[in-house]
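Exam prep: given the inputs below (a chain plus S-adenosyl-L-homocysteine), describe the expected output before reading on.
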Amino acid sequence: MPDAPKAPITQDVLTLPRKAVEGGKVNLVGLTRDALRDALIAAGTPEKQARMRAGQVWQWVYQKGVRSFDDMTNLAKPYRALLAEHFVIEVPEVVRRELSTDGTRKYLLRIAGGHEVEAVYIPEEGRGTLCVSSQVGCTLTCSFCHTGTQRLVRNLTAGEIVGQIMVARDDLGEWPLPGRHPKDEQRLLSNIVLMGMGEPLYNFENVRDAMKIAMDGEGISLSRRRITLSTSGVVPEIARTAAEIGCLLAVSFHATTDEVRDQLVPINKRWNIETLLGALREYPKATNSERITFEYVMLKGVNDSDEDAHRLIKLIEGIPAKINLIPFNEWPGAPYERSSNNRIRAFADIIYKAGYASPIRTPRGEDIMAACGQLKSETERARKSRRQIEADAGLS
Ligand code: SAH
Ligand code: SF4
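Solution:
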């Protein structure tokens, strides 16, 4: 459960200004195409050339993984020097990398201000998914989520979000060889899920800018169908996600009555199930897409009955949907237990028979606390365990 009262649900949280690094130099990672073009002009690039230069720089940074202007060999030397004078290419620092027995990799990343976030790479048959964080902590307090016990520290910048993809590609060693387009490769990092720490729709602009770079043909170059944004249900931002990002959508549904959902996903008190479903009905039409993924965490005796399964089917009627059942992942002090395998299978069966795909998500990277809902900053974790130790010793 949350260990401290939190700020009210709000979008008004601090994002670090972009112009933060060394001597006023601008980090060009995370700048939109237009912002980069403007910044290049401000640094002295002739206006007529700026669009082309921005494209060239993007290709070096996002397609070839280059981190030094010196390596941008199709640019004249004096121009490289000009870039180095005004810009840096900065990605989060990998503080630690943990490797699970199942091949999952968890990265502890340090960002400006000394804050820490986690990103998780999950290799699967024929694809590899990076689970990306959007905030340090979370303003919301979902009672089953480890991140929800951590106070929000700040929003990540677009550069810090796209930077997570870049450091994972560094670690996987998958920047393409010269002359080869990334699409030619069998990509190790082929999918992105915004399911790490934070509520992406409370950091909308930065998430959008980062995902635009991820989807751009001169950027990371992933299809919008390979990107899934997960929200707890920030209703006003759902239509905006369709209009301005257009990726796949997942929603943390988790309950079939407002009474239970108020407890599990407190944002439900602001936008209840009916309001949420209204927004979800419009999403596939607006994006001309695909199914919405309903995430449903299986909590013993709380939301896992046959009645819940039947109610769920009724609620989502008419929405193209897939129901992703997530066995609850435990964390120290968690107030819930995971439903039994038999219960989960019975629940899945009812949904499947109603005509919906109902995969049961295999927990990945549990041994390194990398599974869904287990992420939390290391500094915070350490602080908590110290407090715990003191409590155990009768010191507090
Ligand atoms: N804030 C966003 C995205 C991050 S959470 C959201 O809530 O959708 C990613 C997914 O993991 C969500 O569906 C979340 O509900 C789920 N989750 C959180 N804690 C969990 C836990 N302990 N066990 C299993 N799933 C969990
Ligand atoms: Fe935040 Fe998502 Fe965790 Fe809820 S489940 S506390 S919205 S990260």
